[in-house]
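Hi C.,

You asked whether I'd gotten around to modeling the 229-residue construct. I have! Everything is below, sequence then structure, no commentary in between.
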Amino acid sequence: MTAIPQTATQTTVVFLLFPGITQLDFTAPAQALSRMPGARLIGAAATLDPIATDSGFSIVPTHDFASAPQADILCVPGGHGVTEALGDTATIDFVARQAADAQWVTSVCTGAFLLGRAGLLSGKRATTHWAYTHLLPLVGAEPVAARVVEDGNVVSSGGVTSGLDFALTLIARLHGDAVAQAIQLAIEYDPAPPFAGGHPDRAPESVTAGLKTRVYDAAAARIEAALKG
């Protein structure tokens, strides 16, 4: 156990949930943020039906859009389901409505495009998964090659695991470095990956090219079509 203070003003963290979400986009920051003093986590979706993730299991929302409380921190994860979510008026309206009064508006991975569709990235510096950064100008954002990008009260993060970095960054902003460091220690976030290849800048060119061909070229084309449609 860590000596993290538990007497703090309640902070409501609302995560958008939608079919086809990348579960780690949600669960990684949720794990860190749930340990933040005063944290109250909400998973909001269009209905209370279980949400199918990209990992073969489902997540049960705590609230639907109508009953979700106002977020202090709004977090919008990504996933291949973003393509369909971009065309869902109820989802985009929920993001815009929550963002209007949120202290912090955040995204993980391709969740940035849902923020963008809601008009929240216009003129903002932002990031997303490396395979989609070239599409950020379509939502009025200035792409930045970084794992975490802060612009005012908007915080965006890169692909999947970057959500944990964003969460710890935000915890430090709210509660100080010592609290964020204690949470990092508590979850033993001490990355030592077996390969130095988590980004195209470091991965073998053949690995990057193969992955783009198999997955990301088509996925990026689908998001581009949804943004332009």
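If it helps when you're writing up: The two ends are 50 Å apart (CA to CA).

Thanks,
B.
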